[in-house]
Amino acid sequence: MKLVTYTRRGDTREAVGVWTEKGVVPAKALGLAFETMNDLILHATGADMALLREAKGEALPMDKVTLLAPIPRPLQDVVCLGLNYTEHAEEAFGYSKQAFSADRAVPIFFSKRVSWCQGSDAPIPAHRNLTQRLDYENELAVILGKDAKNVDEANVADYIFGYTVLNDVSARDLQTSHRQWYFGKSLDGFTPMGPCIVTADDIPFPPDLAISTKVNGELRQNSRTSMLIHGIAEIVSTLSRGMTLLAGTIIATGTPKGVAMGMEQPKFLAPGDVVTCTIERIGDLVNTVE
């Protein structure tokens, strides 16, 4: 099941619904009063989810709606994994040994400040006054469906609500000059997400999905989510041992090889560039740098 946040064309009011072959079926058309995706994640019952999956209401044609990020306003910072694909860790280390040196025997966690996420077809701000080394990172994002505390790896799948595509946009010059990742990854507009959330029951656990990125049609990243160094079960279990992960938490699991900084002659993003982040069974997240 694909869940979306959308607006009707000519209307700024946000709503949630189910993306079907016929279009978007509003949750309210099914008798469900969820105002936001966070509300749905936190409060939907099994019966509510069954109604959504059946999606028997009248669908809005896709040319009548605009898809937003499925969670436009995350409840808290996005939890991120650094250097979680082997070849990406190697290319990052080659770019800056000081900034990206790390022991990969344990997961590397950091957070990404975000007050608002844009969806597909919305722009990525270039922030040219702050960065000349704008980069992309296509990542499988995990959304938790219930609070997680001291969760064993064997039980992690029970805590996952669904998955989406997240572009961990990064200002590499800020990231290296400040010698930490928070600022260079947290500028406004640096967390595009979408086009939907695919619920966990539609994707076998752990996910083994093709993940790729194109810039202006040129293939840059091409891997599979099964290539994670630290898998989703380990990530959630490790974090939950020392902190409570609340329902609605978004975890970006890391990016594969092929980012701009890893090239012999880096091709950083510039205004006008179109970035297409694709993950199998979820869809395309397309954003233009402005």
Please tell me the total number of domains.
Answer: 2
**What is the count of β-strands?**
16
Strand content: 25-35%
Q: Tally the helices: what do you get?
A: 6
Low-confidence segments: none
CATH class of the largest domain: Alpha Beta
The secondary structure category is alpha+beta
The CATH architecture term of the largest domain is: Alpha-Beta Complex
Straight-line distance between termini? 32 Å
What is the mean predicted local confidence, pLDDT? 94
The largest sheet is: 10 strands, mixed
Indicate the CATH topology of the largest domain.
Fumarylacetoacetate hydrolase, domain 2
What is the radius of gyration? 18 Å
Which outline best applies? globular
**The named CATH superfamily of the largest domain:** Fumarylacetoacetase-like, C-terminal domain
Could you describe the 3D structure shown?
With 290 residues, this protein is of the alpha+beta class. The chain has two domains: 2-67, no CATH class; 78-288, Alpha-Beta Complex (Fumarylacetoacetate hydrolase, domain 2), CATH 3.90.850. The chain has six helices and 16 strands. It has helices at 37-43, 46-54, 86-95, 97-100, 172-177, 232-240, and strands at residues 2-8, 15-20, 23-26, 65-67, 78-82, 108-112, 134-135, 138-144, 160-167, 170-171, 193-199, 210-215, 218-224, 250-252, 274-279, 283-288. The strands form three sheets. Strands 1, 2, 3, 4, 5, 6, 8, 9, 11 and 14 form a ten-stranded mixed beta sheet that branches. A hairpin with a 3-residue loop joins strand 15 (274-279) and strand 16. It is globular and about 55 Å long. The chain starts with a strand and ends with a strand.
